[in-house]
Amino acid sequence: MFTIQAPFNAQNTRVYNRRGKRQVRSERLLIPRSNFSRKLMVSVGIGWNGKTRLVIIPQNERINAAVYQQILSDQLLPDCRTIYPRNGYVFQQDSARPHTAHETLALLRREAPSIITPEEWPAQSPDLNPCDYRLWAYLQEEVYKEGHCQTVGELTGRLRRAWELLPVALIRTWIEEWRPRLQAVVDNNGRQIQHLFNRI
Fold first, then answer.
1. Do you know which InterPro entries this protein is assigned to (predicted)?
2. I want to staple 131 with a disulfide (CB 3.0 to 4.6 A). Which of 61, 84, 135, 172 is the partner?
């Protein structure tokens, strides 16, 4: 089960133009601003058999080991057990401090059938987690195809809708890329490999 905990940000604005940068009219580059922080911290997991619930962390909540352990206990691990009732999964997470805390790893060793340890997972590797190399770009495209969000509520609603509509068949195509990516890391002596793979 691949997991991610990351901000979903409305400030990632792009302007597309087929003729190049210099041909973009200046008024297209003006981005309307609002008075609220358009950033949500989100935690999710995806696997071959399905996806967890979308967990939106309250805006004023600081993610420390205790908060992350609560998310694991209340949402991510129960969802993993529902998706894989016979415990046929390996739990993956990055090496953020809340994830590598002694108590967090003890919880995962106790509650998950198997985990990828911090020593086994390459540091700073967006090249290997399908949540990084496919999911986030997909969600951003789905959420912002209707334009900018004006409120946190609108951003939350669009994000929830995009998550609900995400098909398991698409997740499987992303996961099928995983083994070739692992091999590419080995072939590239552990260096970054993103440039070797096409983006969405």
1. RNaseH_sf
2. 135
